[in-house]
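User:
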Amino acid sequence: MPSEQAPVTETQLRQANKMEALARFARGVAHDFNNVLTAIAGNSDLLLSDLPADDPRRREVEAIRAAVTRATVLTRQLFTLSGQPETDARSLDANALVRAHERELARLAGERIAVASALEPRSASVQADPRELEQVLLNLVLNARDAMPGGGRITIETQNVELDQSYMADQRPMPPGEYVLLAVSDTGTGMTPETKAHLFEPYFTTKDANTRTGLGLATVYGIVKRSGGFVWVYSELGLGTSIKIYLPRTDVARAAALPAQPPIASLRGTETVLLVEDEDAVRAVARQVLARHGYAVLEARGPEDALALTDTTQAVDLLLTDIVMPGLGGRALAAQFTARRPGTQVLFMSGYPDAAIGRHQMLERGLAFLQKPFSAEALLRKVREVLG
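Assistant: Predicted structure:
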């Protein structure tokens, strides 16, 4: 006879409720932080665009910008902690992903560390969520930087590799086959075997517990496993560390390489954008970025104000709206606005990741989406992509 399922005790129920409350709190905090980080990132980018290359103040602003990137990593880990494992896996070129983030990674590493890349000359296509693979890169570079307090070198490598049975004899449980190697290596302090044994455990850290969550490499491990890949760590005390990630290689013909970065001049526009955002600081910086690049910007603090503008005669080319707002909400606003103004393009933004937005049915797959925090350049590229 099948055994009866043990009843849920009051203690278990109370613990489950506490964990769900913690998850909701983590999601809310991460969302609110992303709004704050968007304002800091945007204003930092505007300052950097105003300062000449030889201005000594650039160093301080770039330090602020690098801190925003680090904080972004932490908010993504909060979403992971809150139980947001859904992914948007697609075929992409790992080379293109690295190139798209080279400048951000160099800024994160800091002045005393050189960041170099050695990329596969052919397409290095994998099936993965691009946002998650970006998070892997950010976490690995951040850890490499911490291992080199006196400076050094970080090398990011991609390579198409075919692993046979003889190689796999020492690398179980990896099956033989074609993989894309993504490796981040440093010239830092290296690790002891004891440290390596605990490296991917949640909350394990060799740093001050008050400054590190210990979730970085645990997050990396989870992302790689969800993508069907494997992680190997090579490290010697005093000789540095190399973390090698193997992801199954996909059909090159189906790989969706990230779009080539267009020249900065192409990010300008003359269209009219209706910006709908209830966070004043986010709305202010987005307005400034767009206006500086030639766009005419109309502002609304909420859906009701935005719909009132449909009664004016001014044309609107793009509706740029937050999704989660008091009252109507961005998705319903877009439906009503485009019904009254057919032909208006729509770009959604949110402090929640797109997987969470999709799970709560606030946004259908395939609609244009920009996750906060975003840089000035990311905003301009996405607006140009939707309008172009």
